[in-house]
Protein backbone atom coordinates (compact mmCIF):
# COMPACT_ATOMS: atom_id res chain seq x y z
CA UNK A 1 0.00 0.00 0.00
CA UNK A 2 2.72 2.41 1.15
CA UNK A 3 4.95 1.50 -1.78
CA UNK A 4 2.05 2.03 -4.18
CA UNK A 5 1.28 5.55 -2.92
CA UNK A 6 4.98 6.44 -3.02
CA UNK A 7 5.14 5.35 -6.66
CA UNK A 8 2.03 7.32 -7.39
CA UNK A 9 3.49 10.41 -5.75
CA UNK A 10 6.67 10.04 -7.78
CA UNK A 11 4.67 9.64 -10.95
CA UNK A 12 2.69 12.73 -10.09
CA UNK A 13 5.87 14.67 -9.45
CA UNK A 14 7.32 13.58 -12.79
CA UNK A 15 4.15 14.57 -14.57
CA UNK A 16 4.13 17.98 -12.92
CA UNK A 17 7.75 18.53 -13.94
CA UNK A 18 6.96 17.53 -17.50
CA UNK A 19 4.00 19.87 -17.57
CA UNK A 20 6.10 22.74 -16.26
CA UNK A 21 8.77 22.08 -18.87
CA UNK A 22 6.19 22.01 -21.63
CA UNK A 23 4.56 25.18 -20.41
CA UNK A 24 7.80 27.14 -20.27
CA UNK A 25 8.74 25.88 -23.74
CA UNK A 26 5.42 27.03 -25.10
CA UNK A 27 5.59 30.34 -23.31
CA UNK A 28 8.95 31.03 -24.91
CA UNK A 29 7.68 30.22 -28.37
CA UNK A 30 4.33 31.92 -28.21
CA UNK A 31 4.64 35.03 -26.09
CA UNK A 32 1.33 36.41 -27.34
CA UNK A 33 -1.52 36.49 -26.46
CA UNK A 34 -0.63 36.87 -22.84
CA UNK A 35 -4.01 35.96 -21.45
CA UNK A 36 -6.32 33.59 -23.19
CA UNK A 37 -9.70 35.21 -23.69
CA UNK A 38 -12.44 33.34 -21.93
CA UNK A 39 -13.97 32.40 -25.22
CA UNK A 40 -10.82 30.54 -26.22
CA UNK A 41 -10.19 28.59 -23.08
CA UNK A 42 -12.26 25.77 -24.33
CA UNK A 43 -12.45 24.50 -27.84
CA UNK A 44 -14.52 27.17 -29.53
CA UNK A 45 -17.83 26.23 -30.98
CA UNK A 46 -18.00 27.83 -34.41
CA UNK A 47 -19.34 31.30 -33.85
CA UNK A 48 -20.98 31.51 -37.22
CA UNK A 49 -23.31 28.74 -36.22
CA UNK A 50 -24.78 30.77 -33.42
CA UNK A 51 -28.36 31.75 -34.11
CA UNK A 52 -28.90 35.41 -34.78
CA UNK A 53 -30.18 37.07 -31.65
CA UNK A 54 -30.86 40.72 -32.19
CA UNK A 55 -29.93 43.00 -29.27
CA UNK A 56 -28.19 40.19 -27.39
CA UNK A 57 -24.48 39.65 -27.15
CA UNK A 58 -23.19 36.11 -27.41
CA UNK A 59 -23.29 34.83 -23.85
CA UNK A 60 -19.72 33.71 -23.32
CA UNK A 61 -18.38 36.96 -24.73
CA UNK A 62 -20.52 39.30 -22.70
CA UNK A 63 -18.27 41.81 -21.00
CA UNK A 64 -18.17 41.08 -17.28
CA UNK A 65 -19.05 44.45 -15.85
CA UNK A 66 -19.50 46.92 -18.63
CA UNK A 67 -17.94 50.15 -17.43
CA UNK A 68 -19.94 52.65 -19.42
CA UNK A 69 -17.48 55.19 -20.59
CA UNK A 70 -18.82 58.43 -21.99
CA UNK A 71 -17.96 58.85 -25.68
CA UNK A 72 -14.67 60.63 -26.16
CA UNK A 73 -15.34 64.24 -27.07
CA UNK A 74 -12.68 64.54 -29.78
CA UNK A 75 -11.94 61.06 -31.03
CA UNK A 76 -10.39 62.29 -34.27
CA UNK A 77 -7.70 64.15 -32.42
CA UNK A 78 -6.19 60.85 -31.39
CA UNK A 79 -3.74 59.79 -34.03
CA UNK A 80 -4.12 56.37 -35.59
CA UNK A 81 -0.52 55.60 -34.75
CA UNK A 82 0.57 54.33 -31.41
CA UNK A 83 1.90 51.97 -34.00
CA UNK A 84 5.41 53.32 -34.05
CA UNK A 85 5.86 52.78 -30.36
CA UNK A 86 5.26 49.08 -30.65
CA UNK A 87 7.93 48.29 -33.19
CA UNK A 88 9.41 44.89 -32.53
CA UNK A 89 12.89 43.76 -33.25
CA UNK A 90 12.93 41.84 -36.53
CA UNK A 91 13.11 38.13 -36.01
CA UNK A 92 15.95 36.98 -38.23
CA UNK A 93 14.96 35.33 -41.47
CA UNK A 94 11.26 35.85 -40.96
CA UNK A 95 10.55 38.44 -43.64
CA UNK A 96 12.63 36.55 -46.13
CA UNK A 97 10.87 33.26 -45.68
CA UNK A 98 7.55 35.03 -46.07
CA UNK A 99 8.59 36.54 -49.38
CA UNK A 100 10.04 33.38 -50.78
CA UNK A 101 6.78 31.54 -50.25
CA UNK A 102 4.78 33.30 -52.92
CA UNK A 103 5.86 34.48 -56.39
CA UNK A 104 4.81 38.07 -57.15
CA UNK A 105 2.26 37.07 -59.75
CA UNK A 106 0.23 35.44 -56.98
CA UNK A 107 0.15 38.48 -54.74
CA UNK A 108 -3.05 40.33 -53.97
CA UNK A 109 -3.17 43.79 -55.55
CA UNK A 110 -5.12 46.41 -53.64
CA UNK A 111 -5.66 49.91 -55.05
CA UNK A 112 -6.98 53.09 -53.46
CA UNK A 113 -7.20 56.72 -54.51
CA UNK A 114 -6.66 59.09 -51.60
CA UNK A 115 -6.88 62.86 -51.80
CA UNK A 116 -7.61 65.76 -49.52
CA UNK A 117 -8.24 64.82 -45.92
CA UNK A 118 -8.47 61.07 -46.52
CA UNK A 119 -5.00 60.16 -45.29
CA UNK A 120 -5.98 58.76 -41.89
CA UNK A 121 -9.00 56.93 -43.28
CA UNK A 122 -6.88 55.32 -45.99
CA UNK A 123 -4.27 54.20 -43.49
CA UNK A 124 -6.95 52.59 -41.31
CA UNK A 125 -8.30 50.76 -44.37
CA UNK A 126 -4.80 49.49 -45.21
CA UNK A 127 -4.30 48.54 -41.58
CA UNK A 128 -7.43 46.39 -41.62
CA UNK A 129 -6.06 44.66 -44.74
CA UNK A 130 -2.67 44.09 -43.13
CA UNK A 131 -4.08 42.92 -39.79
CA UNK A 132 -6.20 40.10 -41.10
CA UNK A 133 -4.81 38.96 -44.45
CA UNK A 134 -2.56 36.02 -45.13
CA UNK A 135 -1.32 36.30 -48.67
CA UNK A 136 1.30 38.85 -49.63
CA UNK A 137 -0.18 42.09 -50.95
CA UNK A 138 0.86 45.05 -53.02
CA UNK A 139 -0.82 48.33 -52.13
CA UNK A 140 -1.17 50.71 -55.08
CA UNK A 141 -1.82 54.13 -53.56
CA UNK A 142 -2.77 56.96 -55.91
CA UNK A 143 -2.43 60.27 -54.14
CA UNK A 144 -1.51 63.91 -54.31
CA UNK A 145 2.16 64.81 -54.00
CA UNK A 146 1.52 66.53 -50.70
CA UNK A 147 0.35 63.30 -49.02
CA UNK A 148 3.05 60.96 -50.32
CA UNK A 149 5.72 61.52 -47.64
CA UNK A 150 3.21 60.97 -44.86
CA UNK A 151 1.95 57.70 -46.38
CA UNK A 152 5.51 56.50 -46.72
CA UNK A 153 6.43 57.48 -43.21
CA UNK A 154 3.40 55.99 -41.49
CA UNK A 155 3.44 52.70 -43.39
CA UNK A 156 7.12 52.22 -42.58
CA UNK A 157 6.40 52.69 -38.88
CA UNK A 158 4.21 49.61 -38.66
CA UNK A 159 5.82 46.59 -37.00
CA UNK A 160 7.80 44.23 -39.20
CA UNK A 161 5.40 41.39 -38.59
CA UNK A 162 2.85 43.41 -40.58
CA UNK A 163 5.03 45.30 -43.07
CA UNK A 164 6.43 42.01 -44.30
CA UNK A 165 2.94 41.16 -45.53
CA UNK A 166 2.88 43.93 -48.13
CA UNK A 167 4.78 46.29 -50.36
CA UNK A 168 3.40 49.68 -51.18
CA UNK A 169 3.75 51.90 -54.23
CA UNK A 170 2.75 55.52 -54.43
CA UNK A 171 1.52 57.01 -57.70
CA UNK A 172 0.61 60.53 -58.73
CA UNK A 173 -2.91 61.27 -59.93
CA UNK A 174 -2.69 60.89 -63.71
CA UNK A 175 -5.02 60.46 -66.61
CA UNK A 176 -3.87 58.26 -69.41
CA UNK A 177 -6.31 59.16 -72.15
CA UNK A 178 -7.91 62.30 -73.45
CA UNK A 179 -6.82 65.70 -72.37
CA UNK A 180 -5.72 65.59 -68.73
CA UNK A 181 -6.75 69.18 -68.15
CA UNK A 182 -10.18 68.37 -69.49
CA UNK A 183 -10.52 65.33 -67.20
CA UNK A 184 -9.54 67.38 -64.21
CA UNK A 185 -12.21 69.90 -65.10
CA UNK A 186 -14.84 67.26 -65.80
CA UNK A 187 -14.46 65.38 -62.52
CA UNK A 188 -12.94 66.17 -59.22
CA UNK A 189 -9.38 65.08 -60.00
CA UNK A 190 -9.36 62.09 -57.72
CA UNK A 191 -12.79 60.76 -58.52
CA UNK A 192 -12.05 59.79 -62.10
CA UNK A 193 -8.65 58.26 -61.38
CA UNK A 194 -9.89 54.73 -60.72
CA UNK A 195 -11.43 54.43 -64.19
CA UNK A 196 -7.91 54.56 -65.59
CA UNK A 197 -6.39 51.84 -63.42
CA UNK A 198 -6.61 49.15 -66.14
CA UNK A 199 -4.54 51.39 -68.41
CA UNK A 200 -2.05 52.65 -65.82
CA UNK A 201 -1.34 49.31 -64.08
CA UNK A 202 -0.43 47.51 -67.27
CA UNK A 203 1.56 44.74 -65.54
CA UNK A 204 -1.15 43.90 -63.05
CA UNK A 205 -3.49 41.02 -63.92
CA UNK A 206 -6.15 41.54 -61.28
CA UNK A 207 -6.93 44.27 -58.80
CA UNK A 208 -9.18 44.99 -55.85
CA UNK A 209 -10.13 48.66 -55.84
CA UNK A 210 -11.68 50.09 -52.68
CA UNK A 211 -12.75 53.55 -51.56
CA UNK A 212 -10.81 55.04 -48.66
CA UNK A 213 -13.79 54.53 -46.33
CA UNK A 214 -13.74 50.74 -46.57
CA UNK A 215 -12.68 48.37 -43.76
CA UNK A 216 -11.86 44.70 -44.13
CA UNK A 217 -13.37 42.62 -41.34
CA UNK A 218 -11.93 39.40 -42.74
CA UNK A 219 -8.86 38.48 -44.81
CA UNK A 220 -8.63 40.18 -48.20
CA UNK A 221 -7.75 36.68 -49.42
CA UNK A 222 -11.43 35.76 -49.16
CA UNK A 223 -12.72 38.41 -51.54
CA UNK A 224 -9.74 37.81 -53.85
CA UNK A 225 -10.86 34.20 -54.22
CA UNK A 226 -14.01 35.38 -55.98
CA UNK A 227 -11.88 36.15 -59.06
CA UNK A 228 -11.70 32.43 -59.65
CA UNK A 229 -15.48 32.20 -59.74
CA UNK A 230 -15.80 34.52 -62.73
CA UNK A 231 -17.24 32.79 -65.78
CA UNK A 232 -15.62 33.39 -69.16
CA UNK A 233 -17.33 36.74 -69.80
CA UNK A 234 -17.11 38.30 -66.35
CA UNK A 235 -14.33 40.82 -65.73
CA UNK A 236 -15.44 42.80 -62.69
CA UNK A 237 -17.35 42.21 -59.47
CA UNK A 238 -19.40 44.70 -57.47
CA UNK A 239 -22.31 44.64 -54.99
CA UNK A 240 -25.73 46.15 -55.66
CA UNK A 241 -26.19 49.80 -54.75
CA UNK A 242 -29.31 48.86 -52.85
CA UNK A 243 -31.14 45.73 -51.75
CA UNK A 244 -34.61 47.23 -52.10
CA UNK A 245 -35.01 48.90 -55.50
CA UNK A 246 -38.07 50.77 -54.29
CA UNK A 247 -36.00 52.90 -51.93
CA UNK A 248 -32.74 52.85 -53.91
CA UNK A 249 -31.33 55.99 -55.45
CA UNK A 250 -30.86 54.83 -59.04
CA UNK A 251 -34.30 53.32 -59.41
CA UNK A 252 -35.91 56.51 -58.21
CA UNK A 253 -33.76 59.31 -59.55
CA UNK A 254 -31.23 58.24 -62.18
CA UNK A 255 -31.56 59.89 -65.58
CA UNK A 256 -29.11 57.51 -67.22
CA UNK A 257 -29.05 53.74 -67.77
CA UNK A 258 -27.80 51.67 -64.83
CA UNK A 259 -27.06 48.03 -64.06
CA UNK A 260 -29.89 45.74 -62.95
CA UNK A 261 -32.82 46.94 -60.88
CA UNK A 262 -30.96 49.11 -58.36
CA UNK A 263 -27.54 49.80 -59.89
CA UNK A 264 -24.16 48.77 -58.46
CA UNK A 265 -21.96 50.42 -55.86
CA UNK A 266 -18.37 50.93 -56.93
CA UNK A 267 -16.79 51.38 -53.49
CA UNK A 268 -15.54 47.79 -53.56
CA UNK A 269 -14.65 46.61 -57.04
CA UNK A 270 -12.79 43.47 -57.96
CA UNK A 271 -11.36 43.53 -61.47
CA UNK A 272 -9.61 41.23 -63.83
CA UNK A 273 -7.60 43.96 -65.57
CA UNK A 274 -6.27 41.59 -68.21
CA UNK A 275 -9.82 41.00 -69.36
CA UNK A 276 -10.83 44.65 -69.10
CA UNK A 277 -7.87 45.59 -71.32
CA UNK A 278 -8.72 43.06 -74.00
CA UNK A 279 -12.53 43.26 -74.01
CA UNK A 280 -14.66 45.07 -76.55
CA UNK A 281 -17.51 46.79 -74.75
CA UNK A 282 -20.96 47.28 -76.19
CA UNK A 283 -22.11 50.88 -75.91
CA UNK A 284 -24.67 53.39 -77.09
CA UNK A 285 -22.19 55.33 -79.21
CA UNK A 286 -21.26 53.05 -82.07
CA UNK A 287 -22.62 49.64 -83.14
CA UNK A 288 -19.27 47.85 -82.78
CA UNK A 289 -17.57 47.35 -79.44
CA UNK A 290 -15.06 49.76 -77.98
CA UNK A 291 -11.94 49.14 -75.92
CA UNK A 292 -12.14 50.37 -72.32
CA UNK A 293 -9.82 53.32 -72.77
CA UNK A 294 -11.44 54.42 -76.04
CA UNK A 295 -14.88 54.36 -74.48
CA UNK A 296 -14.43 56.55 -71.39
CA UNK A 297 -14.22 60.01 -72.95
CA UNK A 298 -17.08 59.69 -75.47
CA UNK A 299 -19.29 57.96 -72.90
CA UNK A 300 -18.67 60.69 -70.40
CA UNK A 301 -19.43 63.36 -72.95
CA UNK A 302 -22.68 61.73 -73.91
CA UNK A 303 -23.98 61.40 -70.34
CA UNK A 304 -22.27 64.16 -68.44
CA UNK A 305 -25.43 66.17 -67.93
CA UNK A 306 -27.26 63.18 -66.49
CA UNK A 307 -24.69 61.86 -64.04
CA UNK A 308 -24.56 62.71 -60.39
CA UNK A 309 -22.12 60.35 -58.74
CA UNK A 310 -19.30 60.65 -61.27
CA UNK A 311 -17.31 57.52 -61.94
CA UNK A 312 -19.83 55.18 -60.29
CA UNK A 313 -22.49 56.37 -62.74
CA UNK A 314 -20.18 55.71 -65.67
CA UNK A 315 -19.58 52.18 -64.41
CA UNK A 316 -23.32 51.64 -64.11
CA UNK A 317 -23.79 52.80 -67.69
CA UNK A 318 -21.00 50.50 -68.91
CA UNK A 319 -22.44 47.45 -67.16
CA UNK A 320 -25.96 48.28 -68.28
CA UNK A 321 -24.78 47.69 -71.83
CA UNK A 322 -22.52 44.75 -70.82
CA UNK A 323 -24.32 42.87 -68.04
CA UNK A 324 -22.64 39.57 -68.89
CA UNK A 325 -19.32 41.14 -67.84
CA UNK A 326 -20.35 41.72 -64.23
CA UNK A 327 -20.18 39.30 -61.33
CA UNK A 328 -22.66 40.54 -58.75
CA UNK A 329 -21.45 39.93 -55.18
CA UNK A 330 -23.77 39.89 -52.16
CA UNK A 331 -24.10 42.93 -49.91
CA UNK A 332 -21.94 41.56 -47.07
CA UNK A 333 -18.94 42.45 -49.27
CA UNK A 334 -19.89 46.13 -49.38
CA UNK A 335 -21.99 46.84 -46.31
CA UNK A 336 -23.18 50.44 -45.99
CA UNK A 337 -25.44 52.43 -43.64
CA UNK A 338 -28.15 51.92 -46.27
CA UNK A 339 -28.23 48.26 -45.22
CA UNK A 340 -29.39 49.00 -41.69
CA UNK A 341 -30.56 52.60 -41.30
CA UNK A 342 -34.02 51.80 -42.67
CA UNK A 343 -34.09 48.44 -40.93
CA UNK A 344 -31.87 45.48 -41.71
CA UNK A 345 -32.09 44.52 -45.40
CA UNK A 346 -28.83 42.68 -46.16
CA UNK A 347 -29.74 39.03 -45.71
CA UNK A 348 -26.21 37.71 -46.33
CA UNK A 349 -24.81 39.91 -43.58
CA UNK A 350 -27.49 38.67 -41.20
CA UNK A 351 -26.40 35.13 -41.94
CA UNK A 352 -22.63 35.47 -42.20
CA UNK A 353 -21.82 38.85 -40.73
CA UNK A 354 -20.31 41.83 -42.52
CA UNK A 355 -17.16 40.96 -44.46
CA UNK A 356 -16.31 44.38 -45.87
CA UNK A 357 -17.65 47.52 -44.22
CA UNK A 358 -18.14 50.68 -46.29
CA UNK A 359 -18.72 53.76 -44.18
CA UNK A 360 -19.87 56.13 -46.88
CA UNK A 361 -21.59 59.45 -46.16
CA UNK A 362 -18.75 60.25 -43.76
CA UNK A 363 -20.17 58.07 -40.98
CA UNK A 364 -16.76 57.25 -39.46
CA UNK A 365 -16.37 60.89 -38.56
CA UNK A 366 -19.75 62.05 -37.33
CA UNK A 367 -22.36 60.75 -34.87
CA UNK A 368 -24.99 59.57 -37.33
CA UNK A 369 -24.04 55.86 -37.33
CA UNK A 370 -22.17 55.01 -34.09
CA UNK A 371 -21.76 51.34 -35.08
CA UNK A 372 -19.73 52.25 -38.14
CA UNK A 373 -17.71 54.72 -36.18
CA UNK A 374 -17.05 52.22 -33.38
CA UNK A 375 -15.55 49.74 -35.83
CA UNK A 376 -13.45 52.43 -37.46
CA UNK A 377 -12.06 53.63 -34.16
CA UNK A 378 -11.44 50.12 -32.85
CA UNK A 379 -9.22 49.33 -35.83
CA UNK A 380 -7.61 52.76 -35.87
CA UNK A 381 -6.70 52.62 -32.18
CA UNK A 382 -5.58 48.99 -32.01
CA UNK A 383 -1.91 48.84 -30.98
CA UNK A 384 -0.46 46.36 -33.45
CA UNK A 385 1.30 44.03 -31.04
CA UNK A 386 -1.51 43.53 -28.58
CA UNK A 387 -3.92 40.68 -28.30
CA UNK A 388 -6.73 41.16 -30.80
CA UNK A 389 -9.46 40.06 -28.41
CA UNK A 390 -8.33 42.13 -25.48
CA UNK A 391 -7.41 45.28 -27.32
CA UNK A 392 -9.90 45.28 -30.15
CA UNK A 393 -12.81 42.91 -29.78
CA UNK A 394 -13.78 43.50 -26.15
CA UNK A 395 -13.51 47.30 -26.36
CA UNK A 396 -15.57 47.10 -29.54
CA UNK A 397 -18.28 45.12 -27.77
CA UNK A 398 -18.40 47.75 -25.04
CA UNK A 399 -18.77 50.51 -27.59
CA UNK A 400 -21.57 48.59 -29.26
CA UNK A 401 -23.51 48.61 -26.01
CA UNK A 402 -23.74 52.36 -26.44
CA UNK A 403 -25.26 52.07 -29.91
CA UNK A 404 -28.32 49.91 -29.21
CA UNK A 405 -30.60 52.93 -29.50
CA UNK A 406 -29.77 53.23 -33.24
CA UNK A 407 -31.25 51.10 -36.01
CA UNK A 408 -27.83 49.76 -36.98
CA UNK A 409 -26.86 49.19 -33.35
CA UNK A 410 -29.81 46.86 -32.83
CA UNK A 411 -28.08 44.18 -34.85
CA UNK A 412 -24.60 43.95 -33.28
CA UNK A 413 -24.16 40.33 -34.35
CA UNK A 414 -24.29 41.43 -38.00
CA UNK A 415 -21.28 43.67 -37.42
CA UNK A 416 -19.39 41.43 -35.02
CA UNK A 417 -19.87 37.90 -36.30
CA UNK A 418 -17.32 37.94 -39.11
CA UNK A 419 -14.67 39.99 -37.33
CA UNK A 420 -14.82 37.67 -34.33
CA UNK A 421 -14.35 34.69 -36.61
CA UNK A 422 -11.47 36.48 -38.30
CA UNK A 423 -9.75 37.14 -34.99
CA UNK A 424 -10.21 33.56 -33.91
CA UNK A 425 -8.57 32.44 -37.12
CA UNK A 426 -5.75 34.97 -36.73
CA UNK A 427 -5.21 33.82 -33.16
CA UNK A 428 -5.14 30.13 -34.02
CA UNK A 429 -2.85 30.80 -36.93
CA UNK A 430 -0.54 32.72 -34.66
CA UNK A 431 -0.28 29.81 -32.27
CA UNK A 432 0.26 27.33 -35.08
CA UNK A 433 2.93 29.51 -36.65
CA UNK A 434 4.84 29.76 -33.41
CA UNK A 435 4.48 26.23 -32.17
CA UNK A 436 4.38 24.23 -35.37
CA UNK A 437 7.55 23.14 -37.15
CA UNK A 438 6.69 24.76 -40.51
CA UNK A 439 5.49 28.32 -40.74
CA UNK A 440 2.33 28.50 -42.78
CA UNK A 441 1.77 31.50 -44.98
C1 LIG B 1 -7.85 37.09 -65.58
O1 LIG B 1 -8.20 36.77 -66.89
C2 LIG B 1 -7.15 36.20 -67.66
C3 LIG B 1 -7.65 36.06 -69.09
O2 LIG B 1 -8.86 35.37 -69.12
C4 LIG B 1 -6.76 34.87 -67.04
O3 LIG B 1 -5.67 34.31 -67.75
C5 LIG B 1 -6.32 35.12 -65.61
O4 LIG B 1 -6.03 33.91 -64.96
C6 LIG B 1 -7.41 35.85 -64.84
N1 LIG B 1 -6.91 36.18 -63.51
C7 LIG B 1 -7.40 35.64 -62.38
C8 LIG B 1 -6.76 36.05 -61.10
O5 LIG B 1 -8.32 34.85 -62.37
C1 LIG C 1 -21.62 34.79 -66.92
O1 LIG C 1 -22.52 35.22 -65.90
C2 LIG C 1 -23.31 36.34 -66.29
C3 LIG C 1 -24.07 36.81 -65.07
O2 LIG C 1 -24.74 35.77 -64.46
C4 LIG C 1 -24.21 35.98 -67.45
O3 LIG C 1 -24.98 37.08 -67.84
C5 LIG C 1 -23.33 35.52 -68.61
O4 LIG C 1 -24.13 35.08 -69.67
C6 LIG C 1 -22.40 34.38 -68.15
N1 LIG C 1 -21.49 34.06 -69.24
C7 LIG C 1 -21.37 32.84 -69.72
C8 LIG C 1 -20.40 32.66 -70.84
O5 LIG C 1 -22.02 31.91 -69.28
Automatic annotation (TrEMBL):
UniProt keyword annotations, A-Z: Glycoprotein, Glycosyltransferase, Membrane, Signal, Signal-anchor, Transferase, Transmembrane, Transmembrane helix
Region Disordered: start-end pairs: 41-96
Catalyzed reactions per annotation: 3-O-(beta-D-glucosyl)-L-seryl-[EGF-like domain protein] + UDP-alpha-D-xylose = 3-O-[alpha-D-xylosyl-(1->3)-beta-D-glucosyl]-L-seryl-[EGF-like domain protein] + UDP + H(+)
Biased composition (Low complexity): 41-56
Mode of membrane association: Single-pass type II membrane protein
Keyword Magnesium listed: no
GO BP of this protein: protein O-linked glycosylation via N-acetyl-galactosamine
Extent of the signal sequence: 1-27
GO cellular component: membrane
Principal localisation: membrane
Job description of the protein: Glycosyltransferase which elongates the O-linked glucose attached to EGF-like repeats in the extracellular domain of Notch proteins by catalyzing the addition of xylose.
Protein name per UniProt: UDP-D-xylose:beta-D-glucoside alpha-1,3-D-xylosyltransferase
Organism encoding this protein: Nannospalax galili (Northern Israeli blind subterranean mole rat)
Gene: Gxylt2
Amino acid sequence: MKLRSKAAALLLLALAALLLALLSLRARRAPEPRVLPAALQRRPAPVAARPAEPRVFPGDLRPRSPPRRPPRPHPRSRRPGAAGRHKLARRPGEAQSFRSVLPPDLWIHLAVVACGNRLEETLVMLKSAALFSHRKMRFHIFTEDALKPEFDKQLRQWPDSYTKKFEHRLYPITFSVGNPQEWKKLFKPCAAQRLFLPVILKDVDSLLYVDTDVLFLRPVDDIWKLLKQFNSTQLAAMAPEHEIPKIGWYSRFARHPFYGTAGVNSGVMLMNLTRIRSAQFKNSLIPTGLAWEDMLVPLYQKYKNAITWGDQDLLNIIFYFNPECLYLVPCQWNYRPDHCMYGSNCKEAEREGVSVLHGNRGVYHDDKQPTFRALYEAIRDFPFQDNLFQSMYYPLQLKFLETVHTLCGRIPQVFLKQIEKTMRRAYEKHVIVHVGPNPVH
